[in-house]
Write a structure and sequence with these properties.
The chain has 177 residues and is mainly alpha-helical. Helices cover 49% and strands 4% of the residues. The chain has a two-stranded antiparallel sheet.
């Protein structure tokens, strides 16, 4: 069990040691002023402790395949590691419905709420539907991320789903910079 308060204290101590390692201050009055600032912890903000909200559950991808919103093959892509279907949150389910009806949408919700699935699922479903209809491979979407780290993690996430799917000719997702 992690004690967040001791973790906070250790982080502050490490930061102090790190920040003090950059300079060898010879001026006694300047060193005294800096020591005073460190002792008063003026360089550290109080910790922010918050809880993530519990996002409202929606349908599973299997339920959306059963009602025709996505193809059964699409539902097979979006599984957990144990093979069970992903359960969508309400905002993901609503976004999927809007995407499938051709409507534009914007999703604003908290970190860790699965915003990526709001566009991953309809994009992969569109690619699978196109293949099933005999369409040639082509670029279907361009997703622009503000940071390489985010682009890399998102590429790994979507390719993880596709890799475990077992489709003979799966959609291809790639990254360009």
């Amino acid at each position: 069990l992690m004690d967040v308060f001791s973790l906070n204290q250790k982080s502050i101590e490490r930061y102090e040691n790190f920040s003090r390692s950059f300079a060898n201050i010879r001026s006694e009055d300047l060193q005294a002023a800096i020591d005073k600032a460190y002792n008063e912890r003026r360089y550290v903000r109080e910790p922010l402790i918050s809880l993530n909200p519990r996002f409202r559950p929606g349908a599973s991808v299997d339920e959306r395949a059963a009602d025709g919103t996505v193809l059964p093959d699409t539902a097979k892509v979006f599984r957990r590691k144990d093979g069970s279907p992903i359960d969508l949150y309400v905002h993901q389910d609503l976004a999927l419905g809007m995407a499938q009806s051709g409507k534009g949408f914007v999703v604003t919700t908290g970190t860790g709420s699965g915003k990526s699935l709001c566009f991953f699922i309809p994009l992969i479903d569109a690619a699978i539907r196109a293949r099933a209809a005999g369409e040639k491979r082509r670029t279907r979407a361009i997703i622009i991320y503000p940071m390489n780290a985010l682009a890399n993690s998102q590429l790994e996430e979507i390719n993880g789903f596709l890799r475990d799917y077992g489709l003979s000719d799966p959609p291809v997702v790639d990254r360009y910079t």
